[in-house]
Amino acid sequence: MGFTKQKFPFVSFTTQSESVAQFILQYISKLTLKPLKNNTRNKRDNMYNIVISKEDAIKFCNEIYPENCLSMDRKYIIAQSIKSWKRPYNMRRIDPRKRWNPEDDQFILQHAIEESMELFDISEKSVQMRLWRLKKQQSV
Predict the structure, then answer these.
(1) Are 48 and 39 spatial neighbours (Cβ–Cβ below 8 Å)?
(2) Neighbours of 111 (CB within 10 A)
(3) Element (DSSP H or E) covering residue 79
(4) What are φ and ψ of residue 9, in 5° steps?
(5) pLDDT, averaged in runs of 10, over the chain (140 residues)
(6) 8 A C-beta contact, residue 102 and residue 130
């Protein structure tokens, strides 16, 4: 837990246990309302390294370190610093990517690009890229 060189807040977890890693990933997914991440062990020491940053780190600290909670002083102080971080006004926010499901794939395969763009509220390039990937999978 702390700040990167670029002054972005982060919270990290390291575990060798697959079940603990899955629990943490599921907890983060529920907390942030983002899709469950697929995390694998690192090659160096065969550990799971899970990291959340920026607004996700703030959400985590708000949940785990409420005002006057029982905690280690140094962790509580860092959590309070993370909770007070504000995104710089000129920093773009990238929303989580849309995950395609089989029904979406069927729709774009059977309809015009313009219809898919309108239904899913995405760009022409996004639809074309998904079509390319689907056709590439079919040819393998």
Answers:
(1) yes
(2) 14
(3) helix 73-83
(4) -70, 145
(5) 95 95 93 82 92 94 93 95 93 73 89 89 89 83
(6) no
Global model pTM greater than 0.70: no
Contact in structure between 39 and 21 (CB atoms under 8 Å): yes
Amino acid at 117: M
d(CA 34, CA 26): 10
* Cα gap 53→69, rounded to integer Å: 22
- How many angstroms separate the CA atoms of 134 and 140, rounded? 10
Q: How crowded is residue 57: how many other Cβ atoms within 10 Å of its Cβ? A: 24
> Length of the chain in residues, anyone?
140
d(CA 122, CA 119): 8
Tokens at 92, concatenated: 């773009």
Rounded CA-CA distance 65/3 in Å is 17
Q: pLDDT value at position 2?
A: 95
**Which residue type, as a one-letter code, is found at position 36?**
L
- ∠ Cα 37 38 43 (to 5°): 130
Backbone angles phi, psi at 106, to 5 degrees: -60, -40
